[in-house]
Amino acid sequence: MSAADLRFFRSELFLIFGRRRNWVGLATLAVVPVIIAISTSMSDGDDPTQFFSSITDNGIFVALAALMIELPVFLPIAVATISGDAIAGEANIGTLRYLLAVPVHRTRLLAIKYAAVAVFAFTVAFLVATVGVLIGLALFGGGDVLLLSGNSVGMGEGLLRVVGVCLYIGLCLCALGAVGLFVSTLTEQPMGAAIAIIMFSIANFVLDAIPQLGWLHPYLLTHHWNDFGEFLRDPVSPSAILPGLFSAGAYILIFLSAAWARFGARDVTS
After folding, report:
1. Count of C-beta atoms within a 10 Å radius of residue 159
2. CB of 116 within 8 A of CB of 217?
3. 167: Cβ–Cβ under 8 A, 6 or more apart, which residues?
4. pLDDT tens, position by position, 95-135
5. Which residues contact 2 (CB under 8 A, 6 or more apart)?
6. Does pTM top 0.85 for this prediction?
7. How far is Cα 213 from Cα 203, in angstroms, rounded to an integer?
């Protein structure tokens, strides 16, 4: 990556993380694990959900419970907003034409835009987990982590497993970001693009919940998102994680290619 590309990339990151509206969104994501931790500390801790019932035994599970709650809706909304604004936002305010006149090659522009979206996707996953771990340890303490498979691991390994969960979820969100980048090349209305991406994500969850569509489930973007629970088993089975990784990789490849094909042939007039 050249010095010009690095400057462009830093500029993109500043646009994403420097806007107050995005601060509000990040703060909203971060407050969920705080609410979970405080509400659990005020309850009797009797909850049938594995992650919630384990919170009082080890604060690390606050992070996992928060990720589980935010993954279906809140995290996709955050990524949809950023990815939908990537190209459509520039076209909407009239800067896309001038950006391409610098000149910035369209392929390089898409690559840098997507790289910034990917950074955001991993950031939101780690943000939720980090806040969850900190507030969880403060309220409930740490110690050995009881895994879903029934055995325990040390605190250090437990934190490494949480990192693995965040990396897995971040990659899944990157796949949604690739879909969002493609949708962003189709319109000049970033809000419309964000809504379309959110509806796409929700539709995937709805279709995945219909048993009669079992043949379709493996091909849905969100079908393997909850497979992050495999990181909390011992040993971790690669065969349980690989389908989700392949699915995310396929969506990234297909929709980035579609975005490149669409944007490369697009007549930019605004």
Report:
1. 17
2. no
3. 122, 125
4. 565 555 555 577 888 899 999 999 999 999 999 999 999 99
5. none
6. yes
7. 13
